[in-house]
Amino acid sequence: MKLISKAGVLPLVLLLAAGGARAQGAAKAPSMLKYVNPNIGTAHSRWFFYTPAAVPYGMAKLAPSTNGHYGNASGWEAVGYDTRQNSIEGFVHFHEWQVGGVSFMPTTGELKVQPGDLDKPGSGYRSRFDRKNQVAQPGYYQVLLDDYGITAELTATKRVGFHRYTFPKSDQAHIILDIGNKQGESSDVTDASIRMVDATHVEGFVSTYPKYVKTYDPSGKVNMYFYGEISRVPASVGAFTAAGQQPTAKSATGKGAGLVLNYKTTAQQKIELKVGLSYTSITNAKANLAAEAKSLTFDQARTAAQATWQRELGKIAVEGTDEQSKTKFYTGLFHALLGRGIASDVSGAYPKHGGQAGQLVVSGAGPKPEFINTDAIWGGYWNITQLWALSYPEWYGNYVNTELQVYRDKGWFGDGLANSEYVSGVGTNFVGLAVAGAYQVGIRNYDVNLAYQAVRANELGYHHRAFGSGKMDVKAFTEYGYVPFRDDYKEYKGEWYKTDSSGAYFANSHTLEYSYSAFAAAQMAKDLGKTADYEQLLKLSNGWRKILNPQNQLMQPKLADGTFVGNFQPFEPWRGFQEGNAMQYTFYVPQNPAGLIAAIGRDKFNNRLDSIFTASAKTGFGGGKEIDAFAGIKAIYNHGNQPCLHISWLFNFSGQPWLTQKWTRQICDEFYGTEPIHGYGYGQDEDQGQLGSWYVITALGLFDVKGFTDARPIIELGSPIFPKSIIQLGNQKKLVIEAKNTSKTNVYVQSAEFNGKPLTNCWLYRDELMQGGKLTFTMGPQPNKSWGSQTPPPSVQ
Asked: What keywords tag this UniProt record (predicted)?
């Protein structure tokens, strides 16, 4: 085939993306992009939350930063972009859990090489901006920098960031490449280097030692590499470091390193940069740039990025007149698909421990595997993994393969990962449960025997266990059947909330979590014929019974001698319970809801749970309007954090499914918002798409309390928000969900049928649902208490 000309060729990536978008139905539905509002929830949002200039699961996640260089003393709090702040200090390329760096900023006038103070405009190169002059869309960002009259635009491919700066007329125009300062969660820069390769190319690297790497993987490091192409030769180049400026230098190393590209610009003159990124080497950053963007223009990259978003968002098409709920839905799906970013290169190279590079092995048919950076999967089995399993199974497979690669390299799973380094923020480890869930839903593009070996080690192994792999109290759990509470471990020899082989300060939440994950591993063991393992793990899955106090029917910390701890206060957070309290965690028995209901008594269970939601509705199902991630940990229910996310679905097991319909719908309507401050509650902790994913699957009326860990997983049915939803299933079949008469008031299921056959239960087996077809609900304003209440979902042990 003869190509017309290099300039006229539409790059392959653009053709594929645009063609995919057309194939997904450009003729039938308006763009899903218009319903995505990245600005929702941007008060007190995490470092990785606001990154509009990216593609799904991209490495290149470009975003403006209002406070990024301040860093983050504890390593995890809200930092980066905040809707309450009105100046921008730069546009940063890397945004992952514990990973951040490489900031660019265009300016005019007197050269300044420090970003300056947030509350002191003019103290550095940061610029004020007005949000009316800001555009944030999936795959694209634009803003006017008021102090300089510069319009900045950003977009991206998977591994390449694009900048386009439109300058005013100026004899002193600059582009500041500030790579040597901490960004977001990355902590201080330990080493950095940047240099001009030639007149229009720049390369460099940044090494950091994030707080959680220091804590959980002390010999680790996080390296970021880049190779950039500049559309216009600068008039001159200067350098700077923490020690000061070097006006004629073309390279810089060490802390505070950076370059300045100086220009004389005419009015409306555009300067563009393409920046290839990598976590393994400059060579691979250059190769990523060549592979993905060699002849791609900014506008073509933006078009391709947004076509990709349309295709991926369009896998779940919802219809109806409720525009606000559509905005919540697609913004939630956007965050789910944005959350965890790839760390592997086009060549398959991936970052190993300590700054080394490894090579992913391609086995079998299908797409090449990707290695991903990820926050903990703590709570993810109630949102992100269920969404992956529904319509994005390749990402569930990438997650499993990433964790198995880490297991091969380091001997243990790692709950949170930053370039293969352990960064588990919660000290537990649910990777085994997530892997078992993938196995049970048929995602098996990996070595199953190796996977089971790793799952078993995660649940039962404690000899020479790596601290960063979490679960340092597994020995105690396997010996006692529960984790003994250690009150003295609140702070022990300088270590907060200590865990070791004798017990833990978070003993009760650990007991409940390990019981759940033991159940998941047991079901996988049974399917693989590991009978002895199955029996041991199933016994451990009942550890929750040992800490349920029959007197108050609450989960109460228990000492090693078998007595319940004194001075017990059910609403007291932290004491025995990570990021929660006894009132919240008492319902944490997802593996055996029937057992918990029987232990408490069905009527008492229902009355208590219903009263909890009645009370929590008054505070927006969380911490009220307090803007803090932990605002709700003292509350009776806290939707803003992971431990509570299954509770509203438990009424399906207790014979009152209409209350699941009522409360899940009310949470969707009231906890979730469409404003910058009221987005994911007020005190949100949106862990890389988890809360957004919960909204998506709940709005569809589909959920599994057990996180697909049953030998034959089920799907619980709730209250679908939209009159019609068309879902492209991961097996390429199609599922249509129709909810007749659904509205803000018609939240209760009157009847249901699947493929023309009446459904009398509030659940069905997942493998049946995944055959596709049509699931139809008839909705009404009053509960039909006879529908779905006779046969609860199975609670097989």
From this structure: Calcium, Hydrolase, Signal
